[in-house]
Write a structure and sequence with these properties.
By secondary structure, this protein is of the alpha+beta class. 40% of the residues lie in helices and 9% in strands. It contains twelve helices and four strands, in the order E-H-H-H-E-H-E-H-H-H-E-H-H-H-H-H. Helix 1 packs across helix 2 and helix 1 crosses helix 3. The longest helix is centred in the middle third of the chain and has 23 residues. The radius of gyration is 24 Å and the shape is flat. The N and C termini lie far apart (68 Å).
């Protein structure tokens, strides 16, 4: 069997409009990823022109949502009806049980029946989450089907362990007839000769994989030639607390571009079933009020001031207060 390598599938599409926030992801059904096993049209020939002009520098790293990366994240469970009917009441029940003499089943019954105003439920939930009482949101889970992401991304994703479960497409048991790969934008826009060498390397490794399998080498050994660019599929189930934590790290502009885009898509899926719950998925600097990333000490990402700036401002204010004979209150 000879492999039919595919490189840079669905990467060279025209840019989508810039997103104003991480929630503004492509609508479901718009350009989505193919399975790593699917065949796709051959990549367009490289233009015989000079390298593209340098990109304009901006304060925030370029949004990965401006390109079709050929990945897809689909919320498999629950659907919108289940979320709207049960998820907020369930979190409300967990929160209210901590402070009520009522039995949990009665609290839940009242919440589902509408005997407790929905806005009141949301207000309690928001306050409890903001106070850091995260156990209350571990009672609800979301299951996603993730496809078309690279092994580079999956190696990062499966490092999240608490409150999350994964199952991933096996390179040991799946015999790939047409594996697809991810092409980073920097390589897509690179000097044509560099891009040609990159694609030649990728295609060579996938060709060799096909030859090895065809020669009777077990797939579990032939896969050793696969590059990190090879796409893969996963199923991920996570509770809301873990999802908020992961989103805080992966929606940050310091995150690697591919996994950042994945969590933009995940956030979009949650917003489709519950804007209220989706609103908690944000870069970690948003709830913190400051940035704690070492690589942003220069403040090139201006979403929130760096903690060094915040602490310096506080120290200066405290110094001024002491000079005036008073102490700043500790809050």
């Amino acid at each position: 069997m000879t492999a039919q390598p595919r490189t840079s599938d669905a990467i060279g599409a025209a840019p989508t409009p810039a997103e104003s926030s991480a929630a503004e992801s492509p609508a479901p059904g718009s350009s989505v990823a193919e399975s790593p096993l699917a065949e796709s049209p051959a990549a367009a020939p490289l233009p015989a022109s000079s390298p593209p002009a340098p990109r304009e520098k901006t304060g925030i790293p370029r949004n990965p949502g401006r390109r079709d990366l050929g990945m897809k994240a689909t919320l498999l469970f629950p659907d919108k009806d289940i979320v709207e009917r049960f998820y907020v009441p369930l979190i409300y029940t967990a929160c209210r049980t901590c402070y009520s003499e009522l039995e949990p089943d009665e609290i839940f019954r009242r919440a589902v029946a509408g005997e407790v105003d929905g806005a009141k439920q949301q207000k309690l939930i928001q306050g409890v989450i903001e106070s850091g009482h995260g156990s209350t949101i571990e009672h609800i889970v979301f299951t996603f089907g993730i496809s078309g992401v690279s092994r580079t991304l999956s190696h990062q994703l499966v490092r999240h362990r608490a409150g999350v479960a994964f199952d991933q497409q096996s390179q040991r048991y799946v015999k790939y007839k047409g594996a697809s790969t991810m092409l980073p934008a920097t390589l897509e826009d690179a000097d044509p000769e560099l891009r040609r060498r990159y694609e030649e390397q990728i295609e060579g490794s996938l060709d060799l994989y096909g030859d090895l399998v065809g020669a009777g080498i077990p797939g579990e050994d032939a896969r050793f030639v696969f590059p990190n660019a090879t796409r893969t599929n996963l199923v991920m189930t996570t509770n809301l607390r873990a999802l908020i934590h992961m989103s805080g790290l992966r929606l940050c502009t310091m995150a690697q571009w591919e996994i950042r885009r994945l969590f933009q898509l995940i956030r979009h899926e949650i917003f489709n079933v519950s804007p209220f719950l989706g609103s908690f998925l944000a870069p970690k600097c948003v709830p913190l009020g400051y940035c704690d990333e070492m690589n942003n000490r220069d403040g090139h990402c201006p979403i929130r001031p760096h903690k060094d700036v915040v602490l310096a401002a506080w120290a200066e204010k405290a110094k001024t207060a002491r000079a005036a004979g008073r102490e700043l209150p500790v809050t």
